[in-house]
Specification:
This is Regulatory protein. It contains no helices and eleven strands. It is mostly beta strands and 115 residues long. Strand 9 and strand 10 form a beta hairpin.
């Protein structure tokens, strides 16, 4: 699997789209996915709007539960990496980050904005 470092500065304003959700390695048994160190892996949906283009949502995996994230809040994503994958006739890009934290202050509820 090819990994590609992502320059988050080029993604525009990053906003948390939902609260972090635990990732399951087996949805039937509800077995929580763990990283190499045994920490649970969480998924955070983040909106991006590069160069004034349409808003896109990317799901970012992160080890350990990110604290203090609220929907609509501007976030800081450190160590974002994209992974290109392919399985049979399916392919895509998945994202992983070292950390995701609130950029500053509480979420901006009810406002428009950049992303």
């Amino acid at each position: 699997m090819q990994s590609i470092p992502v320059d988050t500065a080029r993604l525009g304003v990053l906003r948390c789209a939902n609260v972090p959700e635990v990732k399951f390695s087996n949805s039937e048994t509800q077995e929580v996915k763990k990283d190499r160190d045994g920490n649970p892996v969480y998924t955070v949906a983040v909106t991006v709007r590069p160069d004034g283009r349409r808003i896109s949502v990317i799901e970012i995996a992160v080890s350990g539960e990110p604290k203090g994230l609220e929907a609509g809040q501007i976030v800081k994503v450190i160590g974002l990496t994209a992974f290109v994958w392919s399985m049979g006739d399916r392919s895509g890009v998945s994202f992983r980050a070292d950390t995701i934290t609130p950029a500053h202050g509480p979420a901006a509820h009810g406002k428009g904005g950049d992303a």
